[in-house]
Amino acid sequence: MDSTSVVDGGSAPVAAGSLWSLLQHGYQFDPQRTALIAPSQPAYHLNGLVGPAAPDEDVPLSYMSKTRRLIRLGYHKLNAMGLTDLLAPSPSSISCLSWSFAQVHRGAIRLGHILERASVKPGATILIFAASCAEWALFVWLSALNNYTLVTMEPELLTKGEETLKETIEKLAPAVIVVETLDGSAFVNAYSANNAGFRLGISIGPSAEIPQKWATMSDIASGVFPTALAKVNPIHDPDHVCMIFFTSGTSTSKSKGCKMTVREIAPTFTPPVQIPPLRRPLGIVDQYSFQGMALALLYGCWYSSNAAVLTGGSFHPSKTLASIATFRPFFHAMDPDNVDLIVNNADYTVEKVKSIKVSSLNGSVMTSEKLKRVQKAFPNARLHAKYAMTEGANLFGWPCGAPHAFELPVLQGVVSSGYPLSDVKVRILDKQGQVTPRNHAGAIHLSTALLVRGYFDNVSPDSFYQEGGDGWYITGDCGILDDDGRLYVLGRMDEVDLNQNTIIAPATIGNALMKHFDDMVVVISLKTPEGEIEMHAVFEKHPANASRANDIVGKELGAAYRLNSVTSLEELGLMHWPRTRTDKISTNEIRKLLRRRCYLSIAER
Fold first, then answer.
1. Residue 590: pLDDT over 80
2. What was the pLDDT predicted at 79?
3. What is the pLDDT of residues 496-524, one digit of tens each?
4. Which helix (H) or strand (E) covers residue 419, if one does?
5. CB-based contacts of 382: which residues, under 8 Å, 6+ apart?
6. Residue spans per domain, the chain
7. Which residues of 285-322 are buried (b: 16+ CB within 10 A; e: fewer)?
8. For the sheet containing 241-246, what is the strand order?
9. Given Cys at both, which of 28, 137, 428, 589 links 5, Cβ 3.0 to 4.6 Å?
10. Are 312 and 132 in contact (CB under 8 A)?
């Protein structure tokens, strides 16, 4: 057994095909199957662009034979899993937008003709300021077809007028810009008027005044299109930068653009297990459209010939619960810190979420107590605790099948993320840059072809380095590899106290408190002016008595663990948890308030 904290997940998987070929699985399986449901959009929206649900050409009978075999195979798989209820009839009547694979396929190709007429060349950049909606889904397909670089950003940025956003747009140099509305988009309009490389602007909503080189989606949909689709010739370039995702800014408060090539992202968008076609939607997409998870869910649904439900906009418990209750999806992904928002919502009942059979948990450190709360909220779901980041996903797991949630290994109160998967190497380094022994905490370094190789505009180049012929990425996270090679992620490196013989992580203390308090609690590390690391507990509603909280922490974890303060959101002047642009709890914002509360008065003396 290797005693050092280095694990190699093995040989690389077979390279996936183009993104367009992944999207065609559903279309070729059965073009009339539902691909997309958007509860916030009307049933006949853009009907002139996407056309009827049936395809324009017959599906080869040989493929239909394969289809029937797959359905039988899918039935047996679900039967073995005790999930044959997923093959029950789908929701009866849908009064909102519902597109078949044929409609999305047709709409993307027709939209491509519009861009071609505007002289938008393959490989150009499309910048979208829109929530997860049907139009956004069309551009996902179109970008895969014509090798465009797809960049999605939150529409709220347009009204802030930030100089940094203006610089980002100029550096991205998009040939196409898509906005929800032309109102309040002054510097986007200025860019489109003054940039020679700009070809077309599209407004999803109507507009009284349409600037030159701009059009609305309703105008596009009302155009005349050929009855039969011309044969498409998708471009295959595995090294093309197909997408740029911007990080949440959790670690540095600054968002970084992750440039993803087809080669890097296609395996991530391909489900690791074969999912049979279901008679209800496979997944619900309630993340922001600019998050990698949203696109991974879409591709996962479409690759397996299943439908995705787009709730639209940001995560909101009421919308999520309504979509789950109405459309009964099989899969849901969420940040475990958001489970209290769902459970405490007035619309929540166990009955409404019983259709969820699998829930992927990522976005924050997964502790055993968080896992229990999620399992209680979604009692029918099999939980998968994932270690993922904008820079890469599907890096760790359980090759022989994930254990039941309560059978997952736990260390320092943190649930294991599993083993490195194929083509993933991991090692843990101490502060001197040396590989640590097993069961010792340190910085997580990753090497895999599935990770980005650099940030947009060459930001933070020191996060990447070459060694021994491999490219490595410094995650900034603190972790431990146990004797079996399983990874445990404790939090950010600068938040964990490794200066003592005992590893003191905020997640470990928070887990101990959550055993005894129903209230949501977040433990924040704070570096003092003297360089020491303190731990402060922040409760959502009612702060515990500091003495009692420290008694619990001491009894659960030992004398080395203690809290320097216990407070609540209200005492910090907050009504809700501050959030990052991806709806994570912003520990940086809480840390600023705690620092001001604890040390400002001292500094002023």
1. yes
2. 53
3. 998 777 899 999 999 999 999 989 999 99
4. strand 419-420
5. 357, 358, 359, 402, 404, 405
6. 18-236+273-355, 497-604
7. bbbbbbbbbbbbbbbbbbbbbbbbbbbbbbbebebbbe
8. 214-216, 200-203, 176-179, 125-129, 149-153, 241-246, 257-261
9. 428
10. yes
